[in-house]
Design brief:
The structure is a single chain. The protein has one domain (3-238): NAD(P)-binding Rossmann-like Domain (Rossmann fold, 3-Layer(aba) Sandwich), CATH 3.40.50.720. Helices cover 46% and strands 17% of the residues. It contains 8 helices and 9 strands. The protein has a 7-stranded parallel sheet, with helices on both faces. Helix 4 (96-124) packs parallel to helix 5. The protein starts with a strand and ends in a 10-residue tail after the last strand.
Length: 248
């Protein structure tokens, strides 16, 4: 495996994944929302074989533009969908408009990209490994109703997709993450802005008394991209003892 597409590549876990696989000489397709951050990533990775795209995929016209770009790529071995988030939408009596925003961010854009890449892989008889990044919010009441609902839908989508296309050597995995920290994800920002709230979350939610780090998550992602992981089906919970879930 040498050709990898990453959404949400401009910050957080997505950026860390790009940095990790770039060091291993993968050819990357890095997709992020913010042009300045994508250009900075391009400069830092310094790999002329990589491709970089900056699109706000919550807008349909941008998603169409990206799909047109991806049609020109002949071979992809793996996809890691790090795109997602709560978008600061917290209300319980959520509007249809905000529901759609959250589903666009956490499911719909990923689905459109998958549709193209799965069809291409089957047509060309290539194997393809797809990893979705979900959240423990999809399993337990720990986040907003909109975000939790979108991630729960992602779990179901991933499971059905995995069973449907396994015969075509399309391997779909879903990593359900608990609280983890990078310097610029939600917990990294919270640590800088409100240290007491950050510490209180850890005290209340994390039995190990700390969050997970990207350096602990990425080796698991790398394994899931490997052929040795084919027997691992469906969801994999990586929560640092945070939740009460019984899922594997």
């Amino acid at each position: 495996m040498k050709n990898l597409l990453i959404t949400g590549a401009s910050s957080g876990l997505g950026k860390k994944i790009c940095e990790h696989f770039s060091k291993k000489n993968f050819n990357l397709v890095c997709i992020g929302k913010t042009s300045i951050k994508i250009q900075k990533l391009k400069k830092n990775l310094d790999n002329k074989k990589n491709l970089y795209f900056s699109y706000d995929l919550m807008k349909d016209k941008n998603l169409v533009k990206l799909i047109d770009k991806l049609k020109k790529i002949k071979k992809l071995d793996g996809v890691i969908h790090c795109m997602g988030g709560g978008l600061g939408i917290h209300e319980t009596l959520i509007t249809k408009k905000n529901f759609i925003k959250l589903f666009n961010c956490n499911l719909f854009a990923q689905s459109e990209i998958n549709n193209l890449l799965i069809k291409n892989a089957i047509k060309r008889k290539n194997q393809l490994r797809i990893i979705h990044i979900s959240s423990v919010a999809s399993l337990e009441n720990v986040a907003s109703i909109g975000y939790s609902s979108a991630k729960a839908a992602l779990n179901i989508y991933s499971k059905i997709l995995a069973k449907k296309f396994i015969k075509d050597k399309i391997f779909v995995k879903n990593l359900i993450l608990g609280g983890f920290e990078t310097e610029d994800n939600s917990f990294g920002r919270l640590k800088k802005k409100n240290l007491s709230a950050y510490k209180n979350f850890i005290k209340k939610r994390m039995p190990l008394n700390r969050l997970s780090y990207s350096s602990e998550i990425i080796p698991i992602i790398e394994f899931m991209l490997n052929s040795d992981s084919e027997v691992v089906s469906g969801d994999l919970v990586i929560d640092n003892y945070e939740t009460n879930t019984f899922r594997n």
